[in-house]
Amino acid sequence: MNPQLLFFIGKGGVGKSTTSALTSIYLASRPHKTLLVSMDPAHNQRDIFEQDFSEKPKRVSETLMVKEVNTDFWIEKYLKETTNQIKETYKYESAFNLQNYFNVLQFSPGLEEYALLLAFEDTLKKYGDQDFIVFDMAPTALTLRFFSLPFITLIWLEELLTLRSQIYKKKEIISKIKIAGREIEQDRVKAKLESLICNYEHLQQQFLSETTKVNLVMNNDKLSFSEAYRIRQKLADISIAIDRIVINKLQQDESTAEIEKEFKEQKIGKFALAPNGLSGYAVLTEYIEANKKAFQET
Ligand SMILES: Nc1ncnc2c1ncn2[C@@H]1O[C@H](COP(=O)(O)OP(=O)(O)OP(=O)(O)O)[C@@H](O)[C@H]1O
Ligand SMILES: [Mg+2]
Question: Residue 132: enclosing H or E segment and its boundaries?
Fold first, then answer.
């Protein structure tokens, strides 16, 4: 069976890393095989668990592993691969200045979310045996770009494929006139575009799948509320629904009626404020023990 994917998203500082760590420890204690992945280039999990993590998952308990995505590694890998592909495709095209292309590409906007998408794909491929994969995401802006990337890329690719087919048809007519009877070589660019489309469609389906659950973390304050509202709208534009609202840092007896009224279709998880902070595995497990109710709807 495919793993359940849980994304923790929301405004900066609301507690995405803390609540995703707590949820991962809770799930692992059930006991489900769980992998917690930090997808925020400014990693927080090392401070929460009080230990170092890297691209390679580290086992923190029998059923829990934690990894931090190394975005620089994925950006470099992507740049190298595209450069090689271009070299291969345009072998005969000496006018194409590859070094120029590379120099520009490395400063191209969008590389960070692209790196995250590559890391996401790689994680699914390598750790499909897990019961749960929990993604601790970066603050809103980067996360929304990450979720939108397959949708936007698909629009571009479809357009490019149409253009390419038109160009190729013309080329074919000319070649036929020139060298009648000789078979036309396969269009490598078109084949590449088709394989990219297939890949992005797969990613898009993954985001829309029943096994993907988006947890929107917020605090019970005005700014957090407005941002949560905007995130929901932006995700709805790309057909991604929010499964659960996590209201974090709640003080005793605080009313959350306004949030519950606004987010009627979502499950609600309430996480109490820990007066002495939340770091270190022992402190986290103690918190889970004392706040079991918060995790029931995970
Ligand atoms: N329930 C809680 N009780 C007490 N402190 C909390 C709680 N949740 C989070 N915090 C504290 O709030 C701060 C921000 O939490 P955290 O780093 O989890 O947020 P974040 O949303 O991941 O932030 P960023 O957007 O910077 O990644 C941290 O100091 C953390 O210890
Ligand atoms: Mg964080």
Answer: strand 132-136
Strand partners, 7: 135, 214
Atom in ligand 1 nearest the alpha carbon of residue 21: 18
Decide if 40 is catalytic: yes
Q: Give the architecture (CATH level 2) of 4-146+210-295.
A: 3-Layer(aba) Sandwich (3.40)
**Burial of residue 162 (number of CB atoms within 10 Å: 0-12, 13-18, 19+):** exposed
Cβ–Cβ < 8 Å for 256, 250: yes
Q: Indicate if ligand 1 lies below 6 Å from the C-beta of 277.
A: yes
pLDDT of 10-57, one tens digit each? 999 999 999 999 999 999 999 999 999 999 989 899 999 999 999 999
Relative to the alpha carbon of 19, which ligand is closest? 1
Cα–Cα distance, 23 to 254 (Å, whole number): 22
